[in-house]
Amino acid sequence: MARILVNLLSFTGTKGGMETYTRALYEEFAAMETGHEYIGFGSTEFMQRDHSWFPGRVIDSGISGENRFVWAFGELFMVGRAARREKADLIHNPATLGPWRSRVPAVYTMHDMLYFRAPEHMATPLYTKPVQWMEKRAAGNASAIITDSIASAEDIETYLRFPRERTPVVYLAGTVRETVVTGAERERDLLLVVGNRLPHKNMAGIVRAMARIPVEQRPRLVVTGSRGDDPLRPIVDELALHDHVDLRGWVSTEELDWLYAHATALVVANFCDGFGLPSLDAMLVGLPVLLSDIPVYHEINGEAAGYFDPLDLDSIAATLLRATTDPQWMAELAERGYEQAAKYSWRQTAEQTEAVFQKTLTDPRRAKRIPRSQLDTW
Predict the structure, then answer these.
(1) CA-CA distances (angstroms) from residue 222 to 128, 195, 303?
(2) d(CA 115, CA 56)
(3) Could you tell me which of 306, 305, 324 has the C-alpha nearest to residue 213?
(4) Taking residues 81-107, what's their average pLDDT?
(5) In this prediction, what percent of the chain has a pLDDT beyond 90?
(6) Whole-number Å distance between alpha carbons of 345 and 30
(7) Which of 11, 30, 74, 370 has the fewest other C-beta atoms within 10 Å?
(8) 230/186 Cα distance (integer angstroms)
(9) Per-residue b/e over 170-180, b at no fewer than 16 CB within 10 Å?
(10) Could you give the CA distance from residue 353 to residue 169 in angstroms, rounded to a whole number?
């Protein structure tokens, strides 16, 4: 049995997919009864939330995951100290970043390399260089870097120069929305977009593509997931799309479940991504998916989705229109989606992650640092 310190400083309830991953993974570890002792190192926000799902003791770090300066200091220096204080055998950093140096082996889960691949699409430009620096420091301390896709593994090798053989790919999985009424009649002209308004998600492109569809054929678009002032509102005003684009912001679980049950398709127009959980979530309830034609989405979704060029508004518009006028295509995508989503499971994610932990713990080189130039196949 090993004692594993889990870095939860980034877990604040606002980080989307990374938090979905962390919770699903550690719930599976609890069900698997791995024999390890897990100790969480939680942010102040994490401690204020229900964290009964975590399979072990949680330490209140006193560090806010929402205060970027305090959080960055905690990631770089306090996680390693906590591991030493708790006599941990291993550190797991499930949200990309972590200590720049630690006395015990550290496994990092890096979900993507967006700050390197698409810095122009990051929400806070002043934050880009510091994150790149922190990711490089994390790679310098990592015994292994788990990532979500082959596409991300290749990016990690390219941008961090971390050995590909020490970057195992562990796929994630969709999460069933158990309260969705499956089999409900879908509304032929209703398209759904979910998520926050980060620039790389290209939601503005979807809205602008709506204006390319003739008004008599134009479907309805519901966009959920934003808090506060919606940056899509000025675009809707500019293009006079008020009758066709519904910016609902943050919605209740019941409202989102209704949309998953009745929409024609889920639309994801990201310029880049590391995996893409929303598509698998949709497939699990029979909601067809329309995606950007980028390599990572083909890797994860295969032939179970419709694809468009995210840089071409006419391509997006044509795909949206076809979704609302070709019910046979939607039925085929829904059927393929069930089959594709079934290929992934959180138990599989947990088992493969546990294998990485075990390999790291039993690596005879783990007690000392070895120059990267001397690393052989892991």
Answers:
(1) 31, 11, 25
(2) 32
(3) 324
(4) 97
(5) 86
(6) 15
(7) 370
(8) 27
(9) bbbbbeebeeb
(10) 9
The first and second tokens of residue 87, run together, are 């006599």
Q: What is the DSSP string of 89-126?
A: SEEEETTS---S--SS-EEEE----HHHH-GGG-S-HH
Mean of the pLDDT values across residues 358-373? 63
Give per-residue pLDDT as tens, 107-166. Answer: 999 999 999 999 998 877 788 999 999 999 999 999 999 999 999 999 999 999 999 999
Flag whether the pTM goes above 0.90. Answer: yes
From 173, 154, 205, select the one nearest 279 (Cα to Cα): 173
Model pLDDT, residue 174: 95
Kindly state the average pLDDT of the residues 31-38: 95
Name the nearest CA neighbour of 305 among 276, 330, 271, 342. Answer: 330
Distance of alpha carbon 209 from alpha carbon 313, whole angstroms: 5
Q: What is the pLDDT of residue 288?
A: 98
Spell 19-53 as b/e; 16+ CB within 10 A means b.
Answer: bbbbbbbbebbeeeebebbbbbbbbbbbbeeeeee
What is the CB neighbour count within 10 angstroms for residue 123? 12
Would you place residue 377 in the very low, low, confident or very high pLDDT band (cuts 50, 70, 90)?
very low
Q: Which residues make Cβ contacts (< 8 Å) with residue 44, sequence separation at least 6? A: 60, 61, 62, 63, 64, 65
Average pLDDT, the chain: 93
The residue-averaged pLDDT of 311-331 equals 97
Tell how strand 265-268 and strand 245-249 pair up: unpaired
Beta carbons within 10 angstroms of residue 5's beta carbon: 30
Half-sphere exposure of 88 (CA within 13 A, CB side): 28
Tokens read off for 2? 């090993």
Tokens 């002032």 sit on residue: 229
The whole-number pLDDT of residue 365 equals: 55
